[in-house]
Amino acid sequence: KSAVLMDADSGRVLYGKEEEQFLANASTTKIMTCILALENGQEQTVATASAKAAAAPKVHLGVREGEQFLLGDLLYSLMLESHNDAAVMIVEEFASLMNEKAAAIGCTDTHFVTPNGLDASDAGGDHHTTAADLARIMRYCVWISPKAAQFLAVTQTRSYTFWDLEKKNMFNCYNHNALPDQMDGAVSGKTGFTAKAGYCYTGALERDGKRL
């Protein structure tokens, strides 16, 4: 439905197809959740599952209310497996920052309602972004944020295993972003799907001195 190719150095749109159209963007939302957690949290911060997190629909980690994890571990759950409950646990303290950060990096057509990209609405409208704004957010996460290196470290991981703090349950995460294994120079990416959004993808590539 919509696509954009952006020069990451200048921010110039090289190709656009309905790139300003408001669309649901599913779990590609989680790149914003991840960068906010990295910029505002500590990897050793303890995150406790609320009832809201425990009730998050699949795809989910399967946390139980009161269960505790290290924030740094949950980022792999968020970005590799795209777990919705991990998103809620991570962003509950940063929810008000999502739209502020989007605006700060030049996104004029984005409105985030949920931290995981599940379809929802509030007084500001439906959860949505545009292909152009999503490219701006990805560009920020990979090359501009002071935590860009940490973002890449998480999103480039192929598999990750961690435990809850009480060491009762072990969790295995596998990266669903296949592009780095399929295209030379692919450095990061995030998949997404809901019935409303359809299949969504945002990715970053660096090759022959070009960043896209």
Count up the helices. 8
Radius of gyration: 16 Å
Order of helices and strands: EEHEHEHHHEEHHEEHEEE
Question: What share of the residues does DSSP label as strand, in percent?
Answer: 15-25%
Mean pLDDT: 95
Structural class estimated from helices and strands: alpha+beta
Q: How would you sum up the major sheet?
A: 3 strands, antiparallel
First and last CA, distance = 20 Å
Q: How would you sum up the global shape? A: globular
Estimated helix fraction: 25-40%
Using DSSP, what is the number of strands? Answer: 11
Unreliable stretches: none
Q: Could you give the order of strands across the largest sheet?
A: 9-10-11
Key features of this structure:
212 residues, two-stranded antiparallel sheet, 8 helices, alpha+beta
Question: Layout of SSEs?
Answer:
Blueprint: E1 3-6, E2 13-17, H1 30-40, E3 46-48, H2 51-54, E4 68-70, H3 71-80, H4 84-91, H5 97-104, E5 121-122, E6 125-126, H6 131-144, H7 148-155, E7 159-163, E8 170-174, H8 179-182, E9 186-194, E10 198-207, E11 210-211
Antiparallel strand pairs: 1-2, 3-4, 5-6, 7-8, 9-10, 10-11
Helix pairs in contact: 1-3, 3-4, 6-7
Describe the structure.
The structure is a single chain. The chain has eight helices and eleven strands. The protein has helices spanning 30-40, 51-54, 71-80, 84-91, 97-104, 131-144, 148-155, 179-182; strands spanning 3-6, 13-17, 46-48, 68-70, 121-122, 125-126, 159-163, 170-174, 186-194, 198-207, 210-211. It has a three-stranded antiparallel beta sheet. It has a two-stranded antiparallel sheet with strand order 1-2. Strand 9 and strand 10 (198-207) form a beta hairpin. Helix 3 (71-80) packs across helix 4 (84-91) and helix 6 (131-144) packs across helix 7 (148-155). The two termini are 20 Å apart. The mean pLDDT is 95.
